[in-house]
Design goal:
Layout (H helix, E strand, L loop, with lengths): L1 H49 L3 H4 L1 H24 L1 H20 L4 H19 L2 H8 L3 H32 L4 H4 L1 H15 L14 H19 L1 H4 L1 H24 L13 H30 L5 H7 L2 H21 L1 H19 L8 H29 L6 H36 L4 H30 L3 H5 L9
GO molecular function, one term: transmembrane transporter activity
Protein name: MFS transporter
Pfam family, one: MFS_1
């Protein structure tokens, strides 16, 4: 009996520390997610101040996303070697310094370079979070709750960033969307030092696959660059860049098969559930990230909203996401299984995108923006925790850190590629109509309609892929899918 009392006492003593650690991890994640979206509403102000071209403006976002996505696997591996806490706190420091550099930028080159440095710091912070979370909460029910909280922070943070970007840009100027990270970053860094448990790590002597990291990062950067500049470069130049990118991806794959300590162990992809969940996420995030960017521009450039009003218009999304994820997500998944919940969420996302594809020139917020916004929020609140649980359950215990890095990588890759494709299509459609003599606002709205229609197709493709690949007996019953043997 005394042993049981002592054991329970130790458990109660550990619980506040674990949940305090979760708060710290979520705070670091929230800062990086906010900053990935806070620039959306400020884009017109940044463009007018620094003179970015239409396609060039997308690099204010892509300069952050591409190093972020390209480096996640490498810094995730380094986190295993030096310890998750060291990597997380170092990432917070780099991200905070880079935010200050963004805030004082007075030229296009300075801002893009500082955004790339932010991407590096964001990768260092984010790569280790999910693995640390799973280690903190090994018990399935508590782990489901922790993942729901983590997913709610990440998902709601994206839409909340749009509001903060509008408020800060209109009340002060666009520089403050970055400078606000200085006090937040310092507080998060101090809290991480206080609450996160130290980890020894395996030691740098075990090494990491730096050539592999260079290959995959170069391939990702070239892929997005080829898509973003396709309209200006022409078909021939785009195909050349695409071929080089494909060659780099192929070289990376060969390298991972032969390297003594690969950055990405290819046997991980033997899990159909893990591979399928990551593929579904690429499509889902690609459509949703494009919606946040183009939706904000639609409100400003077509409906004539200011920055603050645009940010306010997005506020129902984080509220709905937070309420649904924290109140229903874990219980719904436990009852119906992640597979059914994921499909339901993707159906709602597809419906929301389809409604947005109307994008009328004389639209109103209550009739044309709010209904699809709420559908997208409800769909994302259902789909994101479900796809996260499926992706992590498809990996063996010793691959949890790697699976976390891969999941974060596909999330960022999906966002950057979706943004590149949808913005390029919208700009090309608008330019074509303008050259034909169409009114600027009407041509812009037509470009956004095309982007939303393509985003609808992407969401439907994610739904079809999930329905065909992720269906398993355990996935539909609420039990984690069986792991693939070594």
């Amino acid at each position: 009996m005394s042993f049981l009392i002592e054991s329970r006492t130790r458990q109660r003593q550990r619980t506040p520390s674990r949940w305090a650690s979760l708060v710290v991890l979520c705070a670091g994640t929230l800062m990086t997610v906010l900053d990935g979206n806070v620039v959306t509403v400020a884009m017109p102000a940044i463009q007018g101040d620094l003179g970015f071209s239409g396609p060039g403006l997308a690099w204010v976002v892509n300069a952050y996303l591409i190093p972020f996505g390209g480096l996640l696997l490498l810094v995730g591996r380094l986190g295993d070697l030096v310890g998750g806490k060291r990597m997380f706190t170092a990432g917070l420091a780099v991200f905070t310094v880079a935010s200050v550099l963004c805030g004082v930028a007075t030229s296009q080159a300075t801002l893009v370079a500082a955004r790339a440095l932010q991407g590096i710091g964001g990768a260092m912070t984010s790569a280790v979070v999910l693995g640390m979370l799973v280690a903190l909460f090994p018990e399935p029910r508590e782990q489901a709750r922790a993942i729901a909280v983590f997913s709610a922070v990440g998902a709601a943070g994206g839409a909340l960033g749009t509001f903060l970007g509008g408020a800060l840009t209109q009340a002060l100027n666009w520089h403050w969307i970055f400078l606000i990270n200085l006090p937040i970053g310092v507080l998060a860094w101090l809290a991480a030092l206080r609450f996160l448990a130290p980890e020894r790590g395996a030691g740098l002597g075990r090494g990491a696959d730096y050539p592999g990291a260079a290959l995959v990062t170069g391939a990702l950067m070239l892929t997005v660059y080829a898509i973003v500049g396709a309209g200006d470069r022409g078909l021939a130049g785009t195909l050349v860049l695409a071929a080089v990118s494909l060659a780099l991806f192929s070289a990376f794959t060969v390298r991972q098969a032969r390297a003594p300590r690969p950055l990405l162990r290819l046997r991980l992809f033997r899990s159909r559930v893990l591979t399928g969940a990551n593929a579904v996420q690429v499509l889902m995030i690609g459509g949703m990230f494009g919606f946040q960017y183009i939706g904000a521009l639609y409100l400003q450039r077509v409906l004539g909203y200011g920055e603050l009003l645009t940010g306010t218009a997005f506020l129902p999304a984080p509220i709905a996401i937070g309420v649904l994820m924290l109140g229903l997500s874990a219980r719904t998944i436990a009852r119906f299984g992640p597979y059914r919940v994921l499909l339901s969420g993707l159906v709602l996302i597809s419906a929301g995108m389809a409604l947005l594809s109307r994008a009328p020139v004389d639209g109103t917020y209550l009739a044309d923006v709010l209904p699809p916004l709420l559908l997208l929020a409800a769909g994302f609140a259902a789909a994101m925790p479900a796809v996260t649980g499926l992706a992590m359950s498809g990996a063996r215990a010793e691959d949890a850190g790697l699976a976390s890095g891969l999941f974060n990588t596909t999330q960022v890759v999906g966002g950057s590629l979706g943004l590149a494709v949808l913005t390029t299509l919208a700009a090309s459609r608008t330019d074509h109509l303008r050259h034909g003599g169409a009114d600027l606002v009407a041509a812009t709205a037509s470009g956004y309609r095309l982007a939303f229609m393509v985003a609808t197709g992407i969401a439907v493709a994610a739904l079809v892929l999930a329905a065909g690949v992720l269906r398993t007996e355990r996935a539909t019953s609420g039990q984690p899918p069986a792991n693939t043997p070594r």
